[in-house]
Specification:
Length: about 400
């Protein structure tokens, strides 16, 4: 019994994970990027430094006051409205660098997270999210880029550069504002509630952000826009729905409030806490997986059979000469399925040589004077005379 339990624990070990809506902020941010986007971090920094040094000569971004930072962000938003696509992309990269926490001016990861949070709330306060949403809508409706991507045999990162920059900035803003921390300022808490309301209401062209992202998924699945960065789209869609509708804790709280309002007794237990304390388990296997498992077990039983001599196999195959090979295979499968003991060997498969029966002695021909054996008196004599008794 203990051996079976040990084997079961080895096959399905107890996994260590946290049952919740999301992981930590750093883990959720790392999910946004891929290894192929690593060179773009330096490109974002260069775009910011090039424009920032043209306006501020001696100070760094972290050394500026809030009023100076707001003035510079306002200048970036004005440059987002230029018609030149390359200039617009450089400004978008500079804004993304601010949302990433101006990592070149920080020494530790804690400093990067601190300035990223500070810059995100500053960007939202200046109306950056609405400006990015307008640019995203323009990129979605860019029929020229869609038709060019459809004609290409392979899609590269260069085909989705603008979309990736916009979606990355919007994802950082949504995820950073959504997460509450202990050191949040009062104005940040108020901005969080305002942002939640805005995401659930029509923001651009009478559509909420979630509906716009669902439209991008639909275009990508119908092969009308294969250049859409679908991973970033789905991540932003997931966090938008989670932010506007709430997670597991909000659902449990809503259940409790509705039951109190209707005069119902409280819930006997918190289902979320019960699930969190349960052991990790795999989902049930599908029908195809069960069939494959049975076939593997059947092949394993056949491989454990002892070797059989060729004479026994020939005798077994010649037992019914009117059966073809397919019928014999079906009969073997049915015999294996009916057998209740694993490894039991068929008696015909044992290491035994079946000896043919001994030949019968030939009878002597009848005497010439007898017309037939029936007319001869006594038993017929053999061709050789018996030896005389001593």
């Amino acid at each position: 019994m203990q051996t079976d339990e040990m084997e079961g624990s080895m096959e399905s070990p107890n996994l260590e994970f946290e049952y919740g809506d999301t992981d930590s902020l750093t883990a959720e941010i790392s999910e946004l990027y891929s290894y192929t986007e690593e060179p773009e971090f330096g490109l974002n920094r260069d775009c910011f430094e090039e424009d920032f040094r043209s306006q501020v000569k001696e100070k760094k971004w972290t050394q500026l006051g809030v009023s100076e930072q707001k003035a510079y962000v306002m200048r970036l938003l004005d440059m987002l409205e230029v018609t030149n696509r390359e200039k617009r992309l450089k400004v978008a990269r500079a804004i993304l660098y601010l949302a990433q926490g101006v990592f070149d001016e920080c020494d530790t990861e804690v400093d990067v997270l601190h300035w990223s949070r500070h810059n995100v709330f500053l960007l939202y306060d200046m109306g950056t999210f609405t400006a990015l949403l307008e640019l995203l809508s323009m990129e979605i409706d860019n029929n020229q880029a869609c038709s060019s991507a459809v004609r290409k045999p392979a899609i590269s990162l260069a085909d989705s550069t603008e979309l990736r920059v916009l979606l990355s900035t919007m994802y950082l803003m949504v995820e950073t504002i959504r997460v509450e921390t202990e050191d949040d300022r009062p104005e940040w808490s108020a901005a969080r509630e305002t942002f939640r309301t805005e995401l659930g209401s029509p923001l651009y062209n009478g559509e909420p952000l979630a509906l716009m992202l669902f439209t991008m998924v639909n275009k990508f699945c119908s092969m009308n826009a294969p250049h859409f960065p679908m991973k970033k789209v789905l991540l932003l869609l997931w966090k938008t729905i989670l932010f506007t509708l709430g997670g597991l804790e909000a659902l449990q709280q809503m259940k409790v409030e509705r039951r109190e309002r209707q005069g119902l007794p409280p819930l006997p237990e918190d289902s979320i806490k019960v699930v969190r304390s349960m052991r990790a388990a795999s989902p049930p296997a599908s029908a195809m997986e069960l069939i494959e498992l049975q076939q593997q077990q059947k092949r394993g039983r056949r491989s454990r059979r002892p070797l059989v001599k060729q004479d026994s196999l020939d005798t077994y195959n010649e037992r019914d000469p009117f059966k073809n090979d397919d019928a014999r295979d079906e009969e073997e499968d049915s015999d294996d399925a009916d057998s209740g003991i694993e490894g039991e060997v068929d008696p015909l498969d044992r290491d035994v040589i079946i000896q043919p029966p001994p030949p019968l002695p030939r009878s002597a021909p009848p005497p010439r004077d007898c017309p037939s054996p029936k007319a001869c008196p006594g038993p017929p004599k053999s061709g050789r005379d018996p030896a005389p008794h001593p």
